[in-house]
Write a structure and sequence with these properties.
By secondary structure, the protein is α+β, with helices and mostly antiparallel strands. 42% of the residues lie in helices and 15% in strands. It has nine helices and four strands. Strands 1-2-4-3 form a four-stranded antiparallel beta sheet. Helix 3 runs antiparallel to helix 4 (72-80). The longest helix has 25 residues, at 115-139. The two termini are 22 Å apart.
Length: 196
């Protein structure tokens, strides 16, 4: 059975898409980021909680501060990418639920009144949204370099607050010279899928 999405789009989003390690110096505009968000905001989250928050690191001063928190092997990538995004989970997402989930406005307190419950749900659902964000970057014809090799607590203290949990940093831009490592193997269907 074939997919409805045409082969070129499948390649762009998945088969040919890779984590970029180098980028050209072509800027990534606010309009491109807005277009990415306007697409990926429709990805599903539990009770439409939408806890992902994106911090764009554009200034040289902020970039320098961020690079200090990256693992050594990721510092040059982050220092030279046209745009860097810090993706985080908003642990106070429930404040938006009356607007985002209007048919059950009580969910704000009835389901998510407890901070520990919110943090777990925010981490899971913001991670889903982070994956959508990476696919959206690819859909915009850009390459993404998502990384978790960093001091997350240092990034939280430097750029966020106690109500936000950083998940990853994503370098964004047009792929540069020697941008790709060789494709790593993937598990086959029967290694992943079972029927009960």
């Amino acid at each position: 059975m074939s997919l409805v999405l045409d082969a070129a789009a499948q390649d762009l989003l998945f088969r040919e898409a890779r984590t970029a390690n180098t980028f050209t110096d072509e800027p990534v505009t606010d309009a491109q980021v807005q277009a990415i968000y306007d697409l990926v905001k429709y990805g599903p989250t539990s009770m439409n909680q939408s806890p992902l928050r994106v911090t764009l690191v554009r200034s040289a001063e902020a970039r320098e501060r961020l690079v200090q928190h990256m693992a050594e092997g990721n510092q040059k990538k982050t220092a030279t990418a046209p745009l860097v995004a810090i993706l985080s989970a908003d642990n106070e997402f429930h404040e938006e639920l009356p607007a985002l989930f209007p048919h059950f406005p009580q969910a704000k307190d009835a389901v998510f009144g407890d901070r520990v419950v919110r943090e777990g749900s925010a981490a899971l659902n913001a991670s889903l949204q982070a994956a959508y964000f990476i696919i959206g970057v690819r859909a915009a014809g850009l390459a993404a370099g998502p990384m978790t090799g960093l001091d997350l607590e240092g990034v939280r203290k430097e750029f966020l607050d106690d109500d936000h949990t950083p998940l990853m940093v994503v370098n964004i831009g047009k792929p540069g010279e020697d941008a790709w490592f060789p494709r790593s193997p993937r598990l086959e269907f029967d290694q992943v899928v079972t029927t009960v």
